[in-house]
Design the sequence.
């Protein structure tokens, strides 16, 4: 089949997210200027550069109490920092709990019973038990076409790696099985790897 998104797909559910998958999940922790904290997962997330290391995530909806966006972006506008927490399979339910449309006063760390630790290089909390955390300083926020579509870019200023995830000098994702987002309500986890050598290597 072929369809133009502007005309609609005619299927029971939108296939777009299922096509662009799997997508890593950026579990974003932020702190507002008033000291309030927020933790929310974003599946439009990825690393975008090596030197300096940089990441991005996109927020695509809004809350009525957040001036056309969501808590994460609103907090980052105020404090210019955030932390990306890697989601392991064992924390899938806690991650999902933090995805709800909670009021801005709700602290998702407390709501989902998640232990927090202070970041080292930026002023916000991180998920203490996560396999890895990327502390980030905001570089820019870009508004995309469409209502409430914002992309947040950050430079990674500090990295935490959980000791049990380091095997023979490598960060071993099979040790914690990262969770990725698929389409619809579906997720996947990484349980095995294969390697390919690039031409000329």
Sequence:
């Amino acid at each position: 089949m072929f369809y133009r998104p502007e005309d609609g797909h005619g299927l029971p559910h939108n296939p777009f997210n299922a096509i662009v998958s799997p997508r890593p999940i950026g579990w974003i922790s932020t702190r507002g200027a008033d000291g309030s904290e927020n933790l929310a997962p974003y599946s439009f997330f990825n690393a975008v550069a090596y030197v300096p290391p940089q990441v991005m995530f996109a927020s695509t909806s809004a809350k009525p109490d957040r001036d056309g966006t969501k808590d994460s972006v609103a907090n980052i506008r105020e404090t210019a920092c955030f932390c990306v927490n890697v989601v392991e399979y064992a924390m899938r339910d806690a991650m999902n709990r933090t995805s709800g449309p909670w009021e801005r006063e709700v602290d998702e760390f407390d709501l989902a019973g998640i232990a927090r630790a202070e970041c080292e290089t930026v002023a916000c909390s991180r998920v203490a038990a996560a396999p890895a955390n990327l502390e980030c300083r905001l570089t820019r926020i870009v508004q995309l076409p469409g209502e409430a579509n914002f992309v947040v870019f950050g430079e990674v200023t500090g990295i935490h790696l959980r000791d049990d995830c380091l095997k023979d000098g490598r960060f071993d994702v099979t040790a914690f099985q990262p969770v990725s987002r698929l389409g619809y309500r579906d997720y996947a986890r990484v349980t095995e790897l294969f390697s390919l050598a690039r031409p000329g290597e």
